[in-house]
Amino acid sequence: MPIKFPFSRRTAPSDTWTKCPSCDAQVFNKQLERNQRLCPSCGHHFRMSIGERIDLLLDPGSFSERDAGLEAMDRLGFHDDRPYLDRLETSRIKTGLRDAVVWGTGAIEGQRVAIGIFDFRFMGGSMGSVVGEKLARCFEAALVERIPAIVVSASGGARMQEGTLALMQLARTTAPLVRLDAAGIPFISVLTDPTTGGVLASFASLGDVILAEPRALIGFAGARVASDTVGEEMPEGFQTAEFLLDHGFVDAVVPRPELRASLARLVKLLPVAAVDDGQPAPVERPWGPIGALSGFAERFGGAVSETIGIDVEQPPAGDNGREPAGDRETSR
Predict the structure, then answer these.
(1) Which residues does 226 contact at the CB level (< 8 Å), separation at least 6?
(2) Phi, psi (degrees; rounded to nearest 5) at 81
(3) Neighbours of 316 (CB within 10 A)
(4) Of 149, 147, 143, 144, nearest in space to 103 by CA
(5) Each residue of 37-50: pLDDT tens digit?
(6) What's the CA gap between 121 and 53, in Å, rounded?
């Protein structure tokens, strides 16, 4: 006769354990929190919330959030199986955030920085009008206060519910970087899992230094779409941080426990350019992606015109192919 117990066996709540997608180990959630959300078996980097990122990267008590009250609006009246406003409200309740990005100022080992942080839990970290506005204000604050700018990206790309308004944020977030570059203020881009779509195609790939977490998914489009577009099979793992490091797109792959120290070193090694008597910093500077691309376009204007369809007028020969800026005519 089978033995009958007076009480059923207790079962643990479903949210007590998390299965590691890399090694299939069952990890106790409290252990994840104590271990910076790293799998103790294989080192897999789980995604982090904004609060966890702030605690990881910034000096305790140094973060001051700005523009916390900005909220998205449904200007297009978008509706698929659910209204856009309902999706926003669901994400706000789930995460406690108003949108997918929080930005403010803080300090890393005493060095003040302007920092923007994505949270993938809020609609996949998608970039809509509010996200673009917050990031632009982050860069503009870095310019005004002359402090380094840092953005920790985790996004699926532009927010489809905002249509063209979301795509406009690619330009909205990139434009301030030109002024940061001209003023000699460093921008450090940190790519985490995942960084894709319009976020990668805009500001995230324009850092003076680009760091990535191990095995982060980084790419513009999905692997199948990329393969179909070029008409050939893509290499295995071509959208991982390690592959991009080997091919020069990423400057360093930094494990999470070392990320804070790496950022601290960078803000010391890339100091903000000095400004004399309140005058703007020189436009030309020896480092920075925007300056490098501008110089390339100037030297190879014909090739650029044929490649991307923009008419670039080459300066006449003489003086090493340059002439005073005031004598140039810009073709429009």
Answers:
(1) 219, 220, 234, 238, 239
(2) -80, -15
(3) 11
(4) 149
(5) 999 999 999 999 99
(6) 13
Domain 49-269 has CATH 3.90.226.10: yes
Render pLDDT for 283-330 as a digit per residue (tens, 0 to 9). Answer: 444 444 444 444 444 444 444 344 334 444 444 554 444 444 444 444
Which candidate, 136, 102, 144, places its Cα nearest to that of 119?
A: 102
Give 214's contacts (C-beta < 8 A, 6+ positions apart).
43, 45, 241, 242, 253, 254, 255
Q: Do β-strands 218-219 and 64-66 pair in parallel, antiparallel, or remain unpaired? A: unpaired
For residue 46, the cross-strand partners are: none
Q: Check whether the bond before 286 is cis (ω within 30° of 0).
A: no
Exposed, middle or buried by CB within 10 Å (0-12, 13-18, 19+), for 9? exposed
Angle between helices 163-183 and 289-299 (to 10 degrees): 90
Which tokens in the block code for residue 62?
A: 């140094």
256, containing H or E segment: helix 256-269
Domain boundaries, the chain: 49-269, 289-327
| 211: phi then psi, degrees, rounded to nearest 5 | -105, 155
Q: What H or E segment, with its residue span, contains residue 108?
A: strand 101-108
Neighbours of 116 (CB within 10 A): 24
